[in-house]
Structure formats: structure tokens, C-alpha cells
Amino acid sequence: MAILGIESVVYGVDDVALCTRFWDDYGLVRADRSIDEPVWELPSGSRIIVRAIDDPDLPPAHFQGSGVRECFLGVDTAENLEKLVARIAVDREVWRDADGTAHFIDPDGNPMGLRIWAKRPVMCRPDPVNAPDHIVRLNQHRKWRMRARPKTINHIVYFSDNYVEAYEFYRDRLDFRMTDHSKANGIFARANGTYEHHTLFWLTTQHPGTRGKRGYAHIAFGCEDVDEVMVGANYMQDKGWSNVRPFAAALNRHRISSAMYYYFPCPAGGDAEYHADSDYLDDAWIPRVWEMAFGATIWGSSSSGFFAHKPATYDVQLDPDEASLEACRHLGKDGKDVPSIY
Ligand SMILES: [Fe+2]
């Protein structure tokens, strides 16, 4: 049974026109010309759908303001879809559309869906990277890009009151794999039909800065390389979109996942992340457990707050049996184990 990744994400937003301009500027390509319910489609076939916040066809909101109202995971076959639906339906309602799409509510109250997905292969050929004594691009420029054109929806992040239980639900019902555990912070988990480092990440609501948050935090789009990330970021800034976020630099590279990221606050809710050069994994990967700040970023001066470079906190271990989960299962319930990072 294989879940191939995120098939589509449906936003409910205060200002459809503003969000349309954002995603157009971001480099997504429109799949229609609708003014009221615009749709963008990525080369992988994943879609971004924007609707008015009070659209009666959206699932009821469980948070305030604009944000993701439903996320659909793509399944490889009809037979597997039915097997997965049967597992979900053990203890919760599942409702179906005429085309077989299944809807359910996950342990954090997030409306989710499962449907068959003809995911498309994506052709990427990033330029080889030269280094002294490692000449792999001789007499040859790099590509000169004019716009970013994100290729995939790489992952989506949700706030979670109990990220251990959230992960276990997706592991036990939908065959997700834990790839990395950021201690007292969250779990990165990969759908079993993709090599992407994580399809879902659950961020604890037990930090002072995340307490009380519900639903969606950010979405990441796979780009070919750092040039595509930066051309996209430059274009967005030229169009007047702010890259200022409260707790994290717009551009950095995670130590967990190795991915380079560039965030923009998004009028559709949360953040939009340009994402490149991530780790890609299969079932040979052994999960790791990381000290939170050490895993968060590789770059950062000693004065850049939470994201400061902290060599003294070098802390990462293999966690093949997911033993690290137990210590975080009751996180926040006694208020003791939660590092104050925000
Ligand atoms: Fe991300």
C-alpha cells in the first residue's frame, strides 16, 4: 500500500484575490482561470486550491482566520485506497465523494482526505556543483533562471497538542515512517510511497510561541536548486511580499533533512517555503533523535537567537526503535520537559 505524497491542499481565505496574486507571484502555474476558486497545478500533479473562507463546501474551520481547511493524500491504487479507508474507519467517521475520495478528521482535528492519485514524475537536472579539485562543470555556465517554478508539494506542517500520538495515528493507520524526531519539538514522517524526507511534520503546541495554535503551520514546495529558491525569493520581494517572520530567518538550511529553505508569510495562512537539496530516503534510513536547536539549522551566527550556531549542543543519536517517543508522549502535561525556545 502506498501513499505517494500530498495530492492537494485546499485553503479557506479572507481575500481570494490577494492569495491569487501571492501564488501567481510565487511561481505556481494556474490550472484554470476561475476567479472565485482558483487552482494551481505543479509538475508532479499536486494542486493548490483557494476558496473563500465561508465557502459552505469547506470542512468546518477549527482555527481562526485563513489557512488550510483540508489536505488530501494521494494513494496509488483503488484497492489500496479501500484498505486504508478501512483502517481509518475503525474508530472514526469516513465520508466519501462520488469519485471515491475519502474524508476524515485526524487526531488533531485536521480535516484530511485520501484519494487515488496519478502522480507524475518530475524531471529535474540541477547544475553540477564545482569545487576546488572537483570540476564537474567545465566550460559551462549554470542555468540562468528568470522565475522559480516549484515542482512538488514536498511537505506540510501542522500544530499538534500531542505530536507523538499524531504521528502514531499516521504510522499505524497509513504506514507513515518516522524519519527524524526533534526532541520536545516534533516528528518528521514520510509517506511510504515517496522518498521525500518528510511528508508531514507535527510541531508541538507546548512552546510559548505555539501554545493554543491549531491546524496548519506551513507548506513546502520542492525546487530544483538554490538558484531557483533565490530567484523565487528575489521575485517575491520585488513584488512587495515580506519575508519577515518572527522566529526564523527566511533563508537557512536545516541540519535535520539537510534542506535549504526560504519562507514567506502567506496571505492564505501560515508560511510558504521554497525548499531545495533535501535528503531523500527509503526504508534503509534509521530514524534519528535530535536536540531541537542543533537539528534546526546549519547556518547562523552566534548572535542569531534561537538559530544561533551552537556547536556545544551537538546532540543526535540513532533511534531505530523510536524509543525517544516515550519521553515526549506527555510533553507539556507537567510543564517540565519543554525547553523555552520562543
Ligand atoms: Fe518545512
Please describe the structure with a list of short key phrases separated by commas or semicolons.
alpha/beta, 6 helices, seven-stranded mixed β-sheet, single chain, 342 residues, ten-stranded mixed β-sheet, 17 strands, binds fe (ii) ion, globular, 2,3-Dihydroxybiphenyl 1,2-Dioxygenase, domain 1
Walk me through this protein's architecture.
By secondary structure, this protein is of the alpha/beta class. The chain has a single domain (3-121, 158-328), classed as 2,3-Dihydroxybiphenyl 1,2-Dioxygenase, domain 1. The chain has helices at 16-26, 78-88, 163-174, 226-238, 292-296, 325-328; strands at residues 3-13, 39-41, 47-52, 67-75, 95-96, 102-105, 111-116, 152-160, 177-182, 186-190, 200-204, 216-222, 251-253, 260-265, 271-276, 288-290, 316-318. A ten-stranded mixed β-sheet has the order 13-14-15-12-8-11-10-9-16-17. The two termini are 39 Å apart. It binds fe (ii) ion (FE2). Residues 155, 157, 218, 220, 261, 273 line the site of fe (ii) ion (FE2).
